[in-house]
Fold this sequence. Notes:
By secondary structure, chain A is mainly alpha-helical. In chain A, 85% of the residues lie in helices and 0% in strands.
Amino acid sequence: MKNALVRLGRLTESFFAEAGGIFILLGQILRFSTRLYKDRSLFIEQCVSVGLNSVPIVLLVGVFTGAVSAWQTNYQIEGYIPIRYLGLGTFKAVIIELGPVLSALIIAGRVGASIAAELGSMKVTEQIDALESLAINSVRYLAAPRFYASVFMMPILVIFADFIAIIGALMTATLLLGIPSATFFSEIPKFFWIWDIFAGEIKALIFGGTTALIGCYIGFKTEGGAEGVGRSTIRSFVLSSILILVFDYILATIFF
Amino acid sequence: MIEISDLTKSFNDKPVLRGVNLSIKSGESVVIIGRSGCGKSVLLKMMTMLLPPDSGRILIDGEDITLMDDQNLYRVRRKIGVLFQGAALFDSMTVQENITLGLREHTDLSETELRRIAEERLELVSLPGILDLKPAELSGGMKKRVGLARAIAMDPKYVLYDEPTTGLDPISADAINNLIISLNEKLKVTTIVVTHDMVSANKIADRIIMLHRGVNFFEGTPEQVKNAEDEVVRQFIEGKADGPIKQVIVKEQPREWWRGKRF
Ligand SMILES: Nc1ncnc2c1ncn2[C@@H]1O[C@H](COP(=O)(O)OP(=O)(O)OP(=O)(O)O)[C@@H](O)[C@H]1O
Ligand SMILES: [Mg+2]
């Protein structure tokens, strides 16, 4: 019993230590926002690797998300709600929820884990020490460009995902469910709020930042050779996915 | 001038350094020897605050780096070149980018000037013509020498070499020894070398310091070390398994169950 309490105590302590460490890293990264222009080549390099290279997978996920939502919405509302609301329902679900969250989860797997693996292997092979010994701040040189690139690219990726998802939904509606496209779009203008898109984009921005921040933090903390790098990769994906879902809930309660 | 006093460092309650005191004058060439695992690399890392000490002071040109803010620490680090034991080359960059990264970040030199400096440094470590290779394409000894070229790229006042000749053939090793000596003599670079190679130690050192049991156990000129009567020192330089330095059986640290499975 006493042992369990000691363990619980340690667990709590380490939780707060980790959370504190993450906030300190975030603070340092935000301080380096002033250096962003000078370090733009690093930033652009990361935008390509975070953003451009993620476009295919995000589009693929987007089109299926849209198609499935349309199909499911049709099944749910059939017989209760006029079919002309199908387009609206799908549209809102995609813009507010599915686009940002599913894209963010994909990015947590693709980008967050790769940040953790890359920085982690730099850590265990002393490359981060080498950088610091050249009087180059590793947070500025490695973490800041990755963080700002994710924050910047995530909303753009989500726009792509939303757009292609609507197309997927439209295809399902017209080709499989036999709903004319005019009916699909009929109710959208009446209930369309710019606020919905804005909320989705805010979510994307926060999810992108979270993923990169966690990836960098866990990467910098990596210890113990190749095994440690593997552990960091998994941890980064698990922790960012959890945080994305938690933040999604919190943001939903704030926004709506 | 580097002055280190009462420096201690433990890892997981296991003391590695228990109170190291060193004073290294500008222009001096000091070799640190000691058994594998006695904390030589740890000591070098603390000299640039890559690892924070548990207690003690490290003065570089009179400034205590253990108390410094980042900005001042980076200013001091620019005076110090470091060759890491495992070379620690940036594997996403070419050899030339590795060597010139510091200059690229801290100066406004043009690409042609950077390339010229990289070429020149590579010639010094007798590796001309590999500017555009990636570290993965180099042998272990070549990596070491590129690491050395990077360490001296910014014309540092101090250079810390962690085992500069380990893994090199005798001819390259001697060339590196000569390079270290000529940097020290011609450019007045203060030199601190960690090595197991007694030939190289005797050739380079003004003074040899032996680390043992977490303290600076013995100091003297190569001559004094050769004639030392202390049994620990004798055993080390003669390289015998039997003697006062015992094989230390390293006990497995108890692992807390929650380590490594927090998420
Ligand atoms: N990051 C670390 N975490 C835990 N223990 C460490 C760490 N770094 C070093 N140690 C421990 O400190 C001790 C000294 O290590 P160090 O690398 O300084 O040895 P060394 O004298 O350089 O040995 P070698 O000649 O083999 O390079 C070792 O016992 C090592 O286990
Ligand atoms: Mg070592």
